[in-house]
Amino acid sequence: QSVYCLVSSLGESEDAIASMGSCQLLTSLVLSMCCHVLSTTAWLISAFLFLQAYLTYSSSVQAGAQRGIEECKHQFAWDRWNCPESELQLSTHKGLRSATKETAFLHAISAAGVMYTLTKNCSMGDFDNCGCDDSKAGKMGGRGWIWGGCSDNVNFGENISKQFVDALENGHDSRAAVNLHNNEAGRLAIKATMKRSCKCHGVSGSCSIQTCWMQLSDFRDVGNYLKIKYDHAQKLEMDKRRMRAGNSADNRGAIAHTFSSIAPAELVHLEDSPNYCVRNLSLGLHGTEGRECLQGGKNLSQWEKRSCRRLCHECGLKVEERRIETVSSCNCKFHWCCTVKCEKCTQVVTKYFCTKKNKSSRPQSSRRRHRVRNR
Ligand SMILES: *[C@@H]1O[C@H](CO)[C@@H](O)[C@H](O)[C@H]1NC(C)=O
Ligand SMILES: *[C@@H]1O[C@H](CO)[C@@H](O)[C@H](O)[C@H]1NC(C)=O
Ligand SMILES: *[C@@H]1O[C@H](CO)[C@@H](O)[C@H](O)[C@H]1NC(C)=O
Ligand SMILES: *[C@@H]1O[C@H](CO)[C@@H](O)[C@H](O)[C@H]1NC(C)=O
Ligand SMILES: *[C@@H]1O[C@H](CO)[C@@H](O)[C@H](O)[C@H]1NC(C)=O
């Protein structure tokens, strides 16, 4: 308990998700240590080593989880489900979390964010015990190039991120297995999106020989890659009879059997997604009423162009146009010496929002009559 208090008082981040994760992690690790290690001294030593590792990596782990969540918000900005904070908290809360496609993405992108940040930290020399991956340095790579330079040490990032992120799953049920699988898929996405960078050598830039190294992609590429995996996420059909009848060994057998047909890089889920149109705060769902959507912009992707249909129309809402005045500084001039004077300019932008249909309007009432007749 005192270890718990020490570490939670050290956490300076106000981010509820990340700190909740670390507290859970800490208690689960301390608990597992106390039950496996018999002698008190050995326990104290391992607790100390753990605390040291915890303090070394915890800021990176938190920054990494945050990176994952920001990418989630970007990827889902124009989807009905838009990675809301409320659900992030529920998703780690025992009993309440679901195993939908969306939570699958969330697990994958968080695990990826943590691995990515730890790996970046490592390449920047932030940690004493880790540096470039030079395991292949000097070896022949392909025609005209050899391995060299500083490859990002993804094995290090993978290793530490596993210890932190996977430790949150302490159950042995199908839900925990699904979460662990999706964490792993997230980490694989980091490896799958890595790129080879090369540098030319030889007489005056002749590039007769190149040295190459593997480098992390932008995290945006990882997000795009996982969004595609999300679109093709597979629903697992657990052998329910075997699970219901079975003891835990049987359970594990059924889980292992189910997973044997799934490729490690694919996202999996157990439940269908709820209707994200409708507000249900006890499930952490905000619904799409009041959400902004995009219309008429020149540079919109197909997905963005359809956002009003997806968020408003298909959810039984209408699109409301609002003119919004924004005031900003403009025509700034530098005055000798040393001030900058600006004017205030107002700009009117048009934005679109989903709103409830006017109840007394015609289409609604005719539909209502329809429903009565159908009954
Ligand atoms: C790792 O990088 C993140 C930002 O990318 C930073 O917030 C964190 O403090 C770094 N960790 C260390 C130990 O330097
Ligand atoms: C991963 O972690 C384990 C245990 O902490 C360690 O033995 C192993 O060498 C690590 N591997 C890498 C590549 O860092
Ligand atoms: C919210 O969802 C729960 C569980 O599905 C359901 O029992 C409840 O009726 C829903 N509440 C509203 C307001 O729709
Ligand atoms: C549209 O996109 C192109 C390239 O993607 C860019 O050059 C151009 O500035 C964009 N136009 C607007 C209005 O954003
Ligand atoms: C609904 O529509 C009617 C007539 O079209 C209008 O008089 C009324 O003000 C509208 N109500 C709202 C809340 O917009």
Which labels suit this protein?
2 domains, 375 residues, wnt signaling pathway, alpha/beta, Wnt8, 13 helices, disordered N terminus, four-stranded mixed sheet, binds 2-acetamido-2-deoxy-beta-D-glucopyranose, Endo-n-acetylneuraminidase fold, single chain, signal, extracellular matrix, disulfide bond, globular
Question: How would you describe this structure to a colleague?
Answer:
InterPro entries: Wnt, Wnt8, Wnt_C, Wnt_CS. Keywords: Developmental protein, Disulfide bond, Extracellular matrix, Glycoprotein, Lipoprotein, Membrane, Secreted, Signal, Transmembrane, Transmembrane helix, Wnt signaling pathway. Its main location: secreted. It is found in: Secreted, Extracellular space, Extracellular matrix. This is Protein Wnt. The chain has helices spanning about 1-10, 15-35, 40-75, 85-90, 100-125, 155-165, 175-190, 220-230, 240-245, 250-260, 300-305, 305-310, 360-375; strands at about 140, 145, 195-200, 210-215, 235, 270, 290-295, 320-335, 340-355. About 50% of the residues lie in helices and about 15% in strands. The protein contains 13 helices and 9 strands. The chain folds into 2 domains: about 1-285, no CATH class; about 290-375, Endo-n-acetylneuraminidase fold (2-Layer Sandwich), CATH 3.30.2460.20. With about 375 residues, the chain is of the alpha/beta class. The strands form 3 sheets. It has a 4-stranded mixed beta sheet with strand order 1-2-4-3, with no helix packed on it. It has a 3-stranded antiparallel beta sheet with strand order 7-9-8. One 2-acetamido-2-deoxy-beta-D-glucopyranose binds near residues 280, 282 and 283.
